[in-house]
Amino acid sequence: MRFFNSHNEYGLLAKLFHWLTFIVLIAQVPFGFYLVGLEFSDERIELENIHILVGITIFYLTLFRLIWKFFNKSPSETKSFFKGQVFIGKANHFLLYVTIFSITISGILKKLYMGERLNFIFFKYGFEKDNFVLADAYYEFHIYANYLLLALVSLHILAVIVHHFVFKDKILNKIT
Ligand code: HEM
Ligand code: HEM
Questions:
Q1: What is the pLDDT of residue 170?
Q2: What is the CA angle 146-143-68, rounded to 5?
Q3: Which of 63, 104, 112, 143 is most buried, with most CB under 10 Å away?
Q4: Would you say residue 51 lies in a domain?
Q5: Which of 54, 70, 62, 68 is closest to 96 using CA atoms?
Q6: Residues with CB under 6 A from ligand 1
Q7: What are the tens digits of pLDDT across the range 94-138?
Q8: Half-sphere exposure of 84 (CA within 13 A, CB side)
């Protein structure tokens, strides 16, 4: 398997980024919903810290992935079956990236506006002053962005199923 993307398929690193993000995200979304239902306790604080660390890791993963994408040309488009298909696919991918950044950045801003210092893995940072109104607003954004992510991922997977079973093209071979 090649390390770099080729004309027909993604390279090893792009595939790793894709499937690692998938595995971490399918755990992180239900974990977030589970977390908010818990009573206040030391265990909840511990779990929230894990949620935050995993979330910040997803942020870096997506950032490195996009830098890699910038320097390494993506495989060519799969043959179109209807007008606008390439545009829809690209828009779905673009919005997936935007939504992952929206979720992670809104989560980070919520905590920073609560007046907390965060561990960004490579450094630690906190705002000088808290602002609970903004903290609430970013948290609301965090929740809606998660619903948007669920909708986009569902569309993404539905498209792959249609490609595989209806169009019968080799789209899955590009990423597996
Ligand atoms: C959390 C779930 C997922 C996310 C966030 C996600 C995200 C993405 C993104 C952003 C791309 C575009 C890559 C690029 O930059 O060029 C992509 C491509 C792709 N993904 Fe996913 N993906 C997810 C799950 C899946 C699953 C479960 C499958 C298979 C059933 C899948 C199959 C594919 C395929 C085949 C492509 C290549 C599409 C093409 O080049 O036309 N993805 N995915
Ligand atoms: C892609 C990564 C992330 C996903 C998928 C995600 C998902 C979620 C979900 C689904 C919830 C539950 C929302 C609700 O129904 O109220 C939640 C809560 C929360 N998230 Fe995230 N999140 C991510 C990253 C982050 C980051 C980076 C931070 C902060 C640095 C963060 C901080 C929080 C906080 C503080 C809560 C509320 C927990 C509580 O009340 O105990 N999240 N998250």
A1: 85
A2: 40
A3: 104
A4: yes
A5: 62
A6: 18, 21-22, 25, 69, 74-75, 78, 89, 93, 96-97, 153, 156-157, 160, 171-172, 174-175
A7: 999 999 999 999 999 999 999 999 999 999 999 999 999 999 999
A8: 1
**Residue 105 falls within a domain, yes or no?**
yes
Question: pTM for the whole thing?
Answer: 0.96
What is the residue range of 85's domain?
Answer: 12-175
Q: Is 7 domain-assigned? A: no
Count of domains for the chain: 1
End-to-end CA distance of the chain: 10
Ligand 2 site, residue 61, Cβ cutoff 6 A = no
How many whole angstroms separate alpha carbon 112 and alpha carbon 139?
Answer: 11
Instruction: Give the pLDDT score at 68.
Output: 97
The DSSP symbol for 126 reads -
Are the C-beta atoms of 12 and 6 separated by less than 8 Å?
Answer: no
26, 36, 117, 140: which to mutate for ligand 2, most atoms within 8 A of CB?
Answer: 36
Do the domain assignments include residue 101? Answer: yes
